[in-house]
């Protein structure tokens, strides 16, 4: 995450575009231009490329509409939404945590595909009425050739939205359909973890079916609806591989969360971590601290209080010949810009802070007094210990 750029803000939600999405944008535009120029020999290149570009942009707006529907229902249930990111396989709403209830999850998941299906149906009805007004031609290719640019655009966009809705209803977790399935299993069993395990297992099953079907297509087999061929087959297998990863990861995350919820930061953190005085030079930092350990970040103290954190990346930004002149205070991240945790905090919440912000360690503070350091690897070690002791599957982060 974080590779990409922000394009705006709607309903208080940041809209971001991942770099991989630009690739899909170009692919859709290019593919459409060849489809349009083949089906409408009378259209000039300006019309073909202009319409293809417009269609790709409206496709982007459709995916955004789908994600906004998820996000708005999430917000209406009091679940915060950090941003919506559009990437290679569509969009993702970064919703802070799962809903509290099965009913909440059900509606939050269902509203996305529902939005796509309703939008698609309306567009197809509008496009269909225009097709119906063409009289005296029965040949399908001739009818398509007669369609105006606007009708062509409306019909294409309508079918894309219907496909988007149907694909997302595939009942494999973490796709929308899998979330709907999970909410039903959750309501029936009252056990969120078991419901997630089942929905993720269905997701993996579907993912493997996609991978196998994709490979079969590469070798020339005809698969109903998907057809055959190298490009289509590889694409299907690729989506299957992506879904398989997502299913496995979502389940592991839940297991990790469950284990960490049972403990506090105080029990996992490193007590008495090596600290650096705020006025040390970079040279002292390197020789007295960095070289002696394999730590990455060091809390910086000013008269016993936490003043900030200095990391190896901060050191790397200082030229070697300036190490004796620059002091730690100048290169550290100051305390007021740091995420910190309390020793009594839930370890699961601390873990979320680490992963969501992409950081490696959290200072553990009581007031402004540093009492420890919680590193990612402390959590991994604890999880490994826990899984060895209790025979659970070893989670990977
Ligand atoms: Zn969705």
Protein described:
There is one protein chain. This protein is an alpha+beta fold and 397 residues long. The chain has 14 helices and 11 strands. The chain has a 4-stranded mixed sheet. Strand 6, helix 10 and strand 7 form a beta-alpha-beta unit. Helix 1 packs across helix 2, helix 2 packs antiparallel against helix 3 and helix 3 packs antiparallel against helix 6. The longest helix is centred in the first third of the chain and has 32 residues. The protein is elongated, with a radius of gyration of 27 Å. The C terminus is likely disordered. Zinc ion (ZN) binds next to helix 2. The site of zinc ion has 5 residues, from helix 2.
Topology of helices and strands:
Layout: E1 4-10, E2 13-18, H1 19-39, H2 45-76, E3 81-87, E4 90-95, H3 102-132, H4 140-146, H5 149-168, H6 176-189, H7 192-218, H8 230-260, H9 265-268, E5 270-271, E6 276-277, H10 282-290, E7 297-302, E8 305-311, H11 312-316, H12 328-331, E9 333-334, H13 347-356, E10 361-366, E11 369-375, H14 376-390
Parallel strand pairs: 2-3, 6-7
Antiparallel strand pairs: 1-2, 3-4, 5-11, 7-8, 8-9, 10-11
Helix pairs in contact: 1-2, 2-3, 2-5, 3-5, 3-6, 6-7, 7-8, 8-13
The chain binds zinc ion (ZN).
Zinc ion (ZN) binds next to helix 2.
């Amino acid at each position: 995450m974080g590779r990409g750029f922000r394009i705006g803000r709607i309903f208080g939600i940041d809209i971001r575009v991942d770099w991989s999405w630009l690739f899909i944008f170009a692919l859709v535009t290019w593919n459409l231009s060849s489809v349009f120029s083949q089906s409408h020999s009378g259209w000039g290149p300006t019309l073909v490329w202009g319409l293809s570009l417009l269609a790709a942009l409206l496709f982007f707006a459709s995916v955004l509409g789908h994600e906004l529907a998820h996000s708005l229902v999430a917000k209406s249930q009091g679940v915060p939404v950090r941003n919506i990111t559009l990437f290679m396989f569509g969009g993702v709403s970064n919703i802070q945590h799962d809903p509290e209830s099965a009913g909440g999850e059900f509606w939050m998941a269902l509203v996305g595909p529902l939005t796509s299906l309703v939008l698609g149906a309306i567009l197809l009805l509008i496009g269909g009425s225009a097709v119906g007004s063409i009289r005296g031609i029965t040949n399908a290719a001739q009818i398509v050739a007669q369609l105006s640019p606007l009708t062509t655009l409306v019909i294409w966009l309508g079918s894309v939205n219907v496909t988007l809705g149907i694909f997302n209803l595939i009942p494999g977790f973490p796709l929308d359909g899998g979330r709907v399935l999970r909410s039903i299993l959750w309501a029936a069993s009252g056990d969120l973890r078991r419901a997630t395990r089942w929905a993720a297992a269905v997701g993996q099953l579907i993912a493997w079916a996609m991978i196998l079907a994709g490979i079969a297509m590469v070798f020339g087999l005809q698969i109903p609806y998907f057809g055959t061929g190298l490009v289509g087959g590889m694409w299907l297998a690729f989506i299957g591989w992506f879904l398989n990863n997502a299913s496995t990861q979502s389940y592991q995350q839940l297991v990790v969360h469950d284990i960490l919820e049972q403990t506090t930061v105080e029990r996992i953190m490193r007590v008495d971590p090596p600290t650096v005085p705020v006025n040390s030079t970079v040279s002292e930092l390197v020789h007295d601290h960095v070289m002696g350990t394999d730590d990455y970040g060091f809390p910086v103290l000013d008269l016993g209080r936490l003043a900030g954190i200095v990391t190896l990346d901060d050191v790397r930004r200082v030229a070697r010949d300036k190490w004796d002149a620059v002091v730690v205070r100048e290169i550290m991240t100051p305390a007021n810009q740091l995420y910190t945790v309390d020793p009594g905090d839930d370890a699961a919440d601390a873990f979320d802070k680490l992963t969501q912000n992409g950081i490696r360690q959290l200072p553990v503070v009581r007031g402004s007094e540093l009492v420890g350091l919680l590193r990612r690897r402390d959590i991994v070690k604890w999880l490994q210990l826990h899984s060895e002791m209790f025979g659970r599957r070893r989670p990977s982060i």
